[in-house]
Specification:
This protein has about 120 residues and is α/β, with parallel strands linked by helices. The protein has three helices and nine strands; from the N terminus they run E-H-E-E-E-H-E-H-E-E-E-E. Strand 2 and strand 3 form a beta hairpin.
Length: about 120
Amino acid sequence: MKLIAHRGLINGPDKRIENQPVTIKSSLEKGYDCEIDLWVFDDRFYLGHDEPQYNVTREFLDQPGLWIHAKNLTAFHWLLGTDLNYFWHESDKYTLTSHRYIWAYPGNKVTDLSLIHI
């Protein structure tokens, strides 16, 4: 089983620390994969759920174990030119990640290639 820390969180929602680079790094160091929210503006990378909040580097995005949720079209377009693990969705029941996993919204049927977003 693979455990993915949602926005880097492993103990439930906490808007104060979600998507913070230090939160992501801590969860990765504990052995979790991490779903992060990526925005791209003017060739700069930002993490944040509802808006870009935390500037990160390209090297930060290269860390193994990241599941990158593109939050704007510029981020999605940029990610298309990489081998990073990414996806885009808004209100879909399912979406396909760049590494061919099915990202499933809670309550939907799953397969052995599905990830359940809780």
